[in-house]
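Good morning C.,

I know you're traveling, so I'll keep this short. The sequence:
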Amino acid sequence: MVQSSLGRDISRLLVWMRSIKRGANRTHPLKAGMMTVKGRDEMHGSDSIDGSDVSRSYKSFVWVAILAVLLIAFFLRVHELGDQSLWHDEGNSVVQAARSFPDIAANAARDIHPPAYYWLLAIWRVLTGESEFALRALSMFASVMTVAFAYGIGARLYGRWAGVLAAGFVALNTFSIYYAQEARMYALLAMASAGAVWSLILLMRRPTRTHAVMLAGFNALGLWTQYAFPFVMVGQGIAALVWWITEIKQPNRIKRIGWYVAANVGAIVLFLPWLPTAWERVTTWPNTGDPLPMAESINVILNWFAFGITARDQSISVVILLLLFGLMVWQSPRGGRIGGKRFPAWMLVPIALAVVPTGIFLAAGLFREANLKFLLPAQIGFAVWMARGVWVLATLSPRSTPARNALLKWIAPLAGAAAALWMIVNLWAGVPLLYDDPAYQRDDYRAIAARIAAEAPPNSAIILNAPNQEEVFRYYYRGDLPIYPLPVGLGGDDAAAREAVESVIAEYERVYAVFWGETERDPNRVVETSLDTLGYEIDNTWYGDVRLTRYAAGYEYQAFQRGCSGTFGEIIDLTSCLLNWEWISQGEILRVSLNWRARTRITTRYKVFLQLLNPDGTLALGNTPNPVQRDSEPRGGSFPTNTLQADRSYGDNHALIIPPELPDGTYTLIVGLYSTEPPYERLTLPNGDTYVTIAEIHVPYVPPMDR
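The tokens, ready to paste straight into the viewer:
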């Protein structure tokens, strides 16, 4: 029975496909570049073939297809939703959502985002909790709704299968998926934009109060969600204006444009209470980052729109071809233009949504990779535009087809299917990278907090540079160590920042410094250079774009002058060494102070290495494969060798932790320099050696009277 039913469905589908090629239904939306507003079925984007079983089978296939797309979109967005740590901006969302509505608005007035998303997240948090999964689920559901709206836009304009393709292009795009898994407002921005465009199409097809209220509501939501939403409204306005000019003989033309104007006035009125704040924020917020050349910027945007943020050297030639087909107004085999004799103005709706916000974005000099999230609405228009291109390609037919050349009539459908399949394959290829490639993982504050909680000795402190990391760090860290966000406030007072670091170094034995975005709040790097000068850097570890640096302070420091010196590569002298201990126990910190003097201008960057050697000259190891060594540019990177001035001394502090499992014995501590570029060649001394011996280190510590 199942096989028989399936066979009937396939037979009906083939009959329906053949009817398209014969032109049996000349006004069928699948052969239309756009739909007319004549008739109830066309008004609602119906693809019916009146009175046939083929219509029912066809509709069933369409609904199964769009349901499958929505399920795939949901799965891709819910997959590993809570696995990654919240990062800095999401921490800000968490803190905002925990405040009262008035406090949310007051804090948003000092930020670059309106408060609507935070208000919604506050309600969502009460209902679902504040785990990573729960906090991000709001964006996930908004993104799935965006996929549904993409289908609605494509189906209303060009036909149901064009809608399915548009929804698929959004569902599989890693640009959309990435921000669907982030507790920020960008997925909501995309949903509001797609909902507004869908409402605009409904309003222009059937100008009713309900549709006008829907458009006003979505536009108001967009305005209260993100300051980039006016770009979308400009795109709507251009599409509506072109329609109003080209559809001059359409009935209810004045009524349609009147409702459109009323809807936008209503949206602006709803936004009026926040408008002065929005203007002040947008006009005074600094524009940071380094823009790319225009050609490179456009190439990046095209790749993100077509394939997502994981795009890696995909060819965009097929994409350009589909966009060109999406612009076509062509003659059908039976005569007359596809979509009617008039210029198909509604073809411009998704194009305007893609092109206008992107054009304003580029013209305003906003291109930074971090700012591309503002173009999520444009990606929806781009997807619908490509979907139309696929469908136009698939339904192209010659003016006449000789009976002997029956194969020709299948070329266009096969070409359209091949183009759609090529897009889907390339989109899908980028999806695993989003979950598995470290390049697309968020900054791991969870791991940073866990490491500090697990290993920090009692007399330790935490410095957050810049201080706006505090929200996300406190979300994870529940320990008792004091936390110092530095510099205080928005920064700018270098003397106060330096004094605060000196106070921390003087009071605590160990300092854990978390660096992220410090160039914005601490552009002169006062916090880090003060730590590098006064403390002894142990190591650096990157957790995404966040860096955890451990410092040993000069706590109970007793310096032993060592007679180590040498000239490396005839370009730089090691003039002196200071060492806190020659006898030291496992688990303690060996502090080393070096002094360098450049003989001439150095053009190459070199790293300093300190190594603890076994008696046989091999690297000392504990029970782990990590040797007891340290590699860093001078003074923690604060003074790269290619910036050193000739004949000037530079202090350079380092620290080595003696592993708890290091066997007892006598070891040799050495120092040298090597290039930061392959093949990482070491500088040599006049005698040909590549290092200077600082001292013999005895483990464990033995009191002098017992040695």
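Safe travels,
E.
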